[in-house]
Amino acid sequence: MTDSVIRCENLWHTYPANKVVAVRNVNLEIKPQEIIGVIGQNGSGKTTLVKHFNGLLKPTQGAVFIKGKDTAPLRIQELAADVGYVYQNPNHQLFARTVTAELEFGPRNLGLSEEEITERCEHAIEFFNLQPYRDNHPYRIGFPLRKLVGMASIFTMQPAVFILDEPTTGQDNITTRTVYKLIERLRDTGATVICVSHDMILLAEVVERMLVMRNSELIADATPREVFSNYELMNSTHLTPPQITELSVRLRRDKNNLQDVKLSIDEMTDFTIATVKEKRGGE
Ligand SMILES: Nc1ncnc2c1ncn2[C@@H]1O[C@H](COP(=O)(O)OP(=O)(O)O)[C@@H](O)[C@H]1O
Ligand SMILES: [Mg+2]
User: Are 28 and 221 in contact (CB under 8 A)?
Assistant: First the structure.
């Protein structure tokens, strides 16, 4: 018996065309309802790794199990109900002639009733604020909105595991806020969320576990506090933690106290106020 939703065992992926080893011997287990961030430089293997989680890619060595089932013999259609993957580039994902048709495609494939399809579609249009564009061709709307359509078309399938590949890259303020709202919503509904991102502020706020990729290898699997306060690790991936986290790390009195590592302005504010009060009280 297993209660993991995704498990990788000695997973390797070598692209046949150019013999690039994009994922090298990754072992990991993801449990239901975990909210996970995946970070790493461009080309470090993040997308290749997560595309194994819904069977878009199959291991060239090792194995991936989704809810205990080996993905190797399974077709992507058989996995789509469990795991949804939102492409980094929506142009690789979208193909229908209208936004509405795009959103209806997934639930229709799942064999849902027309009533249920319409209900899910309308709900997604409202959630992602796509009302003005519902009859537009997905290629006739701007990139940020097109990316939201990509998210919405997975949202309508309500998969238990939701993978977002760089959801805020190329987004403006409004669409970025929708991404935050989406992740919160998914968390509240008990979904497992895997978010590949360079947006450290987003990750600091929403994830509880981070996977760090470097040169095709998984080099760390820890909490955001642990990862962001590990300068050696961060430097080796050429990534920088949120500034507020860096400030808190510089200010902390006890190097071993992870609770002094702050992930957001709110946390830093509470900490500062408490420290000031403590000082005043002691005077
Ligand atoms: N379809 C592909 N064919 C051949 N090589 C690829 C393909 N996709 C990615 N790669 C290579 O695999 C490596 C990892 O890429 P990728 O998983 O896209 O990294 P990331 O998402 O971290 O930017 C890179 O060297 C990239 O050039
Ligand atoms: Mg990528």
Answer: yes
